[in-house]
Amino acid sequence: MSPWVIGFATLLALIIVYKLFKHVTGPSLPLPPGPKPWPIVGNIPHMGPVPHRALAGLARNHGPLMYLRMGLVDVVVASSATVAEQFLKVHDENFSSRPISSVGKYMSYNCQDFAFAPYGPRWRFFRKTCSVHMFSGKALHDFRHVRQEEVGKMIHSLASSSSKAVNLGQMLNVCTTNSLARVMIGRRVFNDNNGTYDPMADEFKSMVLDLMEMLGVFNLADFFPLLEGLDLQGVKAKVKKLLNRFDAFLTQIVEEHKIFKTEKHQDLLSTLLSLKEAPEDEHKLTDKGIKALLMLENGLDPKMLNMDEAARFTLQKAIPLCAHPRPRLSTHVYSSSLL
Q1: Are 221 and 103 in contact (CB under 8 A)?
Q2: How does pLDDT run across 32-66, given as a tens digit for each residue?
Q3: Is position 311 within any domain?
Q4: Which residues form a coiled coil (predicted)?
Q5: Which of 110, 225, 241, 257 has the smallest set of CB atoms within 10 Å of its CB?
């Protein structure tokens, strides 16, 4: 018998049991308004091909606070600044932990990373560590040369390609990812034409592309958690293979840092390894926890779209200034500034 038939029959039986249980236990607390869910699949069909536009349309009909049932998962949508403030500021602690997807759970070593760790003392320790060693004023100053070098390489690539079209989004991706990687693990992870070729960088790029594809897959187990064990779409098997590749990549880098460690911390990984050895550390780090924190792919793609759009907007606004650029630049930019 087909696994899909078995899965559907199992799902149907579990939904019937769930409905009977809800009927016996009595009515639930009142929920926000929302579109009437379909049997079994809930409001998934309402999402359409462009979910964010569908949600905006539903909010116009049902209000800024809306309830949806996505399969067996309850979802509340806040679509106004006032309502969002209630979630993100007033009741922040109640909603700080992120929902866990199947892909996110495995790629974060079972929620041990900064993005998916549940809100609590350990998450606050992660935030403090990253804030002090990556985002503090001292850290930004210490790693300023990294950003300057990577931006310089990107500008060099743009200058050498001045006579032809360039993929600005791809260049920004390489620049920001290599800047982040050098701060975190002390090495570049994307190859370009301005540096030494590294075969590990090609492997990393391949893994990131595979992960982005997996993150975009509609996975039934995310909306029907009872089906996760059946792995009807093979998502779990693919993610486990991808995790093994990432784990091998990160393990090699961690071991290299252990062998060639220096007294002065030069990147986040060196700091994490020293914290692991600290006897007074109440949130004891393990190698697996360190590798989870070093999962670079957590923040790569979304910001690329924003930077691409920002560059496009800047160029549009700069067109009227192109008639007399040098006098204007001399007036508003110091000679010692990096432009």
Answers
A1: no
A2: 999 999 888 899 999 988 888 999 999 999 999 99
A3: no
A4: none
A5: 241
